[in-house]
Amino acid sequence: MPSKSEQIARFDPDGVGRKGSLFGLPFTPETAKVVIIPVPWDVTVSYAGGTSGGPMAILEASPQIDYFLADIPDAWKIGIAMEAVSTAWAEHSAALRTRTELYIEWLEAGNSREALPEEFEGLLEDVEEAGRQLNDWLAEQANKYLEQGKVVGVLGGDHSSPLGLMQALARRHEAFGILQIDAHADLREAYEGFRYSHASIMTNALELEQVRKLVQVGVRDFAESEKAAVDMSNGRVVSFYDQTLKEKQYAGQTWRDQCQQIVGALPDKVYVSFDIDGLDPKLCPHTGTPVPGGFELDAIHYLIKQVVLSGRQIIGFDLCEVAPGGNEDWDGNVGARALYRLAAWAGISDNREL
C-alpha cells in the first residue's frame, strides 16, 4: 500500500473527482489523519425517515467538490477517508424500522404505551438491544483508530448514531464539552419509549461524567421538559436558542460577538455534534425533522473555525440527519461540503497547526 506522502504526490487536486472514495481523495483509513465511520441507522426517527441513506448520499456527492479552502491551505493533504458503508447495519436498521414505523403510527393515533397490543410486544426491548450493540460496535471501531492517533468522526444516520464514539472518547479523556448545532434540544427521556432515540442523544451523552459541558446552538423546536432540563443543569447545559440569537442580531449584535460567547462557554477539549437540521431547511429539505429558521452553512463554518482559532482541540465530531432526496441530491451535496470543512478543521485542531 502506498504511504500517505506517496498518495499525496500522485494525486492531482485539479483533476476529475474519483468516485468511490470520500471527496474523491486518494486516502484510506490506514493513511488518513481523519477517519469517518458511516452509521446508516434511523430506527427511531419520529417524523420522516431516510437518514440511514445519508452516508451513501454524501459519499456519492462528495467527489464533485473543489478542495481549495482559503483559510485552510492544502486542506485535502490533511488526509480524510471513510470506512465502507456497512450493509449489515443498514439492513438491520431497515428491518427494525419497518416495525418501529408501525408502532410510532400507532402512538400518533392517540394510543398509550400502557396498553401495547400483542404485535408490538418485545419491540422496545429489541430496539434497545440493537442500539446497545450498535454503540458497542462503534466504540470498538472508533477506539481502533483513536489508538493510532487519528481523529474520528461519525457520519449518520439519525442523531442517535454517534453515541458509541462519545463513549469511546469518554474512556480516553477526563473531561470534554459538546458543541451541539441542532434545531432540537435532544434532551428527551427515552422518547416514545426508545432509550436510544434520536431525540435522546444528549440525555444519553450527559450520562457520561466526562461530558462536563453541553453547549447547544440554534435550538428552536423543543419541549418544556427539555427547557427545564437546561435550566436545572446548574450550568452544565447552556443553550443559545435560535430565537434569542436572531433577536440579538436584529438589535445589532454581530455573529462574531455571538460566536465568542459560544466558544467561551466551551472547555479546552470539544466534541462537535452537527445535526444538519440546525441549518436553514432550504439547505437540507429532506432531513428527518426540518424546522424553519436556522443558519446558513457559512455561519456554522465560521463558528467551528472560531473554536479552533481559540486554541481549543476538536477531539471528535459527527454529522447526522442528512437524508437524500430528488434526482439531483441537494442534501448530499450540502452534507458533503459541511463534512469536508468540519473534518478539515478537526484535523487542523488535532495537529495544532494553523
Keywords:
8 strands, single chain, eight-stranded parallel sheet, 354 residues, 11 helices
Which helices and strands appear, and what pairs or packs with what?
Elements: H1 4-10, E1 34-39, H2 54-61, E2 80-82, H3 87-108, H4 123-146, E3 151-156, H5 163-170, E4 176-181, H6 201-205, E5 211-217, H7 224-231, E6 237-240, H8 242-250, H9 255-264, E7 269-275, H10 297-309, E8 313-320, H11 330-351
Parallel strand pairs: 1-2, 1-3, 3-8, 4-5, 4-7, 5-6, 7-8
Low-pLDDT ranges: none
Could you say which structural class the secondary elements and strand pairing correspond to? alpha/beta
CATH topology (fold) name: Arginase, Chain A
Distance between the termini: 30 Å
Distinct helical segment count: 11
Please count the beta strands (DSSP E, at least 2 residues each): 8
Total of domains: 1
Q: What is the string of SSEs from the N terminus onward?
A: HEHEHHEHEHEHEHHEHEH
Rg over CA atoms, rounded to whole Å, is 20 Å
Please tell me the overall pLDDT.
93
Sheet with most strands: strand arrangement: 2-1-3-8-7-4-5-6
Helix content: 25-40%
Query: Mind describing the biggest β-sheet?
Result: 8 strands, parallel
Q: What is the architecture at the second tier of CATH?
A: 3-Layer(aba) Sandwich
Beta-strand share of residues: 5-15%
In CATH, what is the homologous superfamily?
A: Ureohydrolase domain
What top-tier CATH class fits best?
Answer: Alpha Beta
Describe the global form: globular
